[in-house]
Structure formats: structure tokens, C-alpha cells
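Researcher: I've got a protein sequence and the SMILES for fe (ii) ion. Could you write out the 3D structure of the bound complex as C-alpha cells? I'd like something to compare against our soaking experiments later this week.
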Amino acid sequence: MSLSSENETEKEVVEMLAEEGLNATPDAVAEIASQKDPASVVRRLAASCDAVVVTREDARRATDTNATDNGTGSVANTEQKPSTDPPDRPASVGSDGSEPTKTVSSENESENGEPDSLGSDSSSVTSSSSPSSSSPTEQPSNPTSTPTTRTPSEFDVTNDITGESTCTGEYTDFVGYFRDRFNQLSKTLRSRIQPRSVESAGSGGKDVALVGMVNSVRTTSSDRDNRLVEIEDPTGTIRLLLSDDLVGTAEILVVDEVIGVEGRLSDDGGMVFVDEVHFPEVPPRREPNTASRDVKAVLVSDVHVGSDTFVGERWDIFADWLTRQDDVEYVLVAGDLVEGVGIYPGQDEELTTVDIYEQYRECAERFAQLPDDTEIITITGNHDSVRLAEPQPALDERFREPFGENVSFHGNPSVVTVEGVDVLMYHGMSLNPFAESLPHVEIEEPQTAMVEMLRKRHLAPMYGDVRLAPETRDYLVIDQVPDVLHTGHTHTVGAEKYRNVVTVNTGAWQSQTPYQKAMNIQPDVGYAGVLDLSTLELDMKQFAP
Ligand SMILES: [Fe+2]
Ligand SMILES: [Fe+2]
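Model: Sure. Here is the predicted complex with fe (ii) ion in place.
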């Protein structure tokens, strides 16, 4: 095969991979192109590979599997499970998924205490009435029920900054931090569009592909329907002109995110007339991990013990309900365990407990109401006693003493793998800036921002709007696509399944604060997401007297 025909085949392989929503390293592309039937290898990868970027190893495995399949028919663990799910997005959506997603609305408790229906575009996100909300008198333990035994397995926690922080806030730290972000995210884009560097882009009307970090987005002075975007890579900056149907895409760009573009260079090479924008994205046909047994996790957040608006009575009902659920073996708490002290001016007037140690002691008592044979897995939030800059480390040892052995403490964000299911836990401080920056994102529907996090493959791209610590690695990049993205912070409930990733914000255990009243924010109070780990079905329950 001549060099030119090899290149041609590789180009075809890249196109086939892109059609399947897959990225691949150059050596993986070469590996696939060298096979007798590259198309079948690509199909097999699409069916079996959930890697963010297909590596040469993945390609070889798919090739080997191909041979095995032809020879013996034995292809355990690599076959795609028959999918009964409807497509998450309309067929007309391109591979960059640039159309707005349908959202699941969440509503507050109705006047009679029953939860309103939580609509869904996915059969895996449902709502149901709390068993206690309509009949509080049945809450004391059912005398006919027998004590339950839960046997939670070991779980893994990764992407946790705790004990790993090295940054001092020097200028060089920031350079390294943003370079790592660029490198991680450009990897996911590179094989899809084969970009050049800005420095070597050339000029004179040539077609070009680039990957860069967004520096600015503004309207042009000559035509307000166009958007001028500046991007930067390690070799330089360049302006992009987005017009016509790309203006909507420009409106969902945020500063410091990494994108890929394809278009035509201006004659002087100083601008690209963009034809297509690529986000790092979630592969469209990714098969999620599920537990191999019937077991559930309960997802909550923003407990805010110590506040005079903490809803202890609802927590009592939740704890009593949980005691009777023998298939729930894990409780995940996405930060703001306590109200904290000195978080905002005048906060001490809204505290029932003004001592931070005492707040954590009371929180430990609240957690002790939950069955002690459940694993309670927590991360930190902005009300907890850790640094504000993200990634935040786990709660310091000195606050952990009152908690039971079944409670563990981790950084924000962390990837918690329970029963094989990857749950990316992030408190959610970027959700407000997302809502302020993007026209289709509302804080009452936090899942709309969470979908953007997945598409941008970053939890908090906008430096400055979110306090970020310049670690050597950017822990907020969504390096591996999770099965579940769990957040809190907004105190509003929202859930949506996006490309087989369950996104859920689980509200709060704090009723409306004076600040929220002044801002006209209606919190969703007393909710827990019950996640079936064997199916990833999510059931939002509300607990109320
Ligand atoms: Fe909170
Ligand atoms: Fe918060």
C-alpha cells in the first residue's frame, strides 16, 4: 500500500470513528487502518469501547476480538448489550450534540405535602411519593418488619485532591494548570478533527481545523448576528467568525473551555470562518456500567446542619424510611454537610449552633440516625470547613472524630465507584455561573447546566467565576465519562439522562433562607434520589411531614 493510500484509509477510519462518535489516538487510527476490514473493527469498537479516546490497545483488542468472534464466537465482555433505551437525542442532532437538550422539570412540594410529578425524558428518571409524606403516622418502625442486614462492598474513590495539593498560586502554577486542561481536552478532540496548531495554521483561504481554549466571545461591530470568538493554544491566538446557524452555538460557549473548530482561513490568516464547532462531548453510544446485583444508593446533598432552617423533622422521616430499605446500602452526600460559620455577613443570626465543631457533632448525630450498615460517602462543599478554591480537599481529620466508622470523607470533586458504577460527585459551585452565562440554563433546572458540563467535559471551565486552585493537574476536567453526575449547591432538584449518563441535583435539607427569599429562590427541600445501581433507574423521593 502506498503512503498516500494509507493516508486515505486512515482518513476514512477517522471519518468512520467520528460517525460513531468515537475519538482515537493517531496510532490507534493507524492500527485500525492496517486491518483487512477497518469498518468492522470500527463497528466493534462502537459497540464495546467506552473509552474517551480509543487507544492502540483498544484497537488491538477490537481486532483480536474480531478474530476470536470469527473463529469461536466467544466474545465475552465486549459485545454491546441489546439496547432497549430510546435514543437520548433526536436523530437530527449532530455528533457535537449542539442542539439544546430536553430537560426534566422539577417542582416543589405541593400544598398537601405530596411531591409533584418530576417529569422525565427518560424512563430511568422517575418520581414517587415518599412513603411517609402522605401518612406520617406510619413512620415509627413497622412492628412486623424484621431487622435488615446490608452488606455494602468496598468502594473506590479517585480524582480526589485530598493529600495531593501542591499549588502555591504562583504564575507558573496557573500556566501549568491551564496547559494541563488544554492537553487533556484537546486529546478528546484531536483524532476527530486532526487539528493544526494556531502558529502553523497558514493563510490564503485554506481549510483548517484547530483546537483552542476560548478567550472571549463578543458580537461583531459590523453585524450583530455574527459572533467573534478568540481562541488560544500553546502557540498563539486566533479569531473565529461564527455566523448564521452557529450563533446559537456561540451563545453556549464559556470562557476557558476547550473547543475544536473546522473552517476556512481568511486571506491574511488572521481569522477562521467557522463551519463547525466541536465540543469534547460524551460518546453517543456509550454503555453505562451497572451493578451485578440488586442494590441501591441514596443520593442527597446540602444538609446544612446548624442552620435555623435545617429541616430536622424531614430528616427524621427520611432516616426512618431508610431504616426500612434493606436494598439501599450506600448514601452519597454531595457537600454542605453543615451550615458553617462566617460564610456570609450576618450568618450568625441564622444559626442554631454557632460553634463549627458542634455543628459537625450534630451532623454526626444526624448521620447516626441512618442505618450503620450503610456506607455514607461524603464530599465537601462551600459551607464546609475547607478551602473554597476547587478542587476542595476532604474534611479535615479534626472534624471527623464524632462520625461513625461507616462515614467516609472525600474531596470535591471525586469519582466514587460503587458496585462498579462510577458516580462523579461535585458540589456544584459552577452551576450559578453557568446559569448566568448560558441563555438556556436556569438555576431551577440545574440539570441543564450539568449536561453542559458533560458536553464541555469540564465541571467549572470559567476561571474567575469559580475559585480554582492551579494544581498541576486539572481535577475538574471530566477525564472519564461517569455513569452518574451528582451535584447539589443550588438547593434545586433536577435530573436528566444524557447519552446514558444520569445527571441529578438532589436539592437540600434546608428551607428557604432570608437570602434565598430576597433573591426569590424557591429551594427544593427534603429530597433524596434513590438510584438502582443495577439499572441506573433514578427515583426522586421527597420526605415531608
Ligand atoms: Fe448548600
Ligand atoms: Fe453550596
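Model: The chain has three domains: 3-71, 171-278, 294-542. The domain at 294-542 is CATH 3.60.21.50 (Purple Acid Phosphatase; chain A, domain 2).
Researcher: Great, I'll pass this along to the crystallography team.
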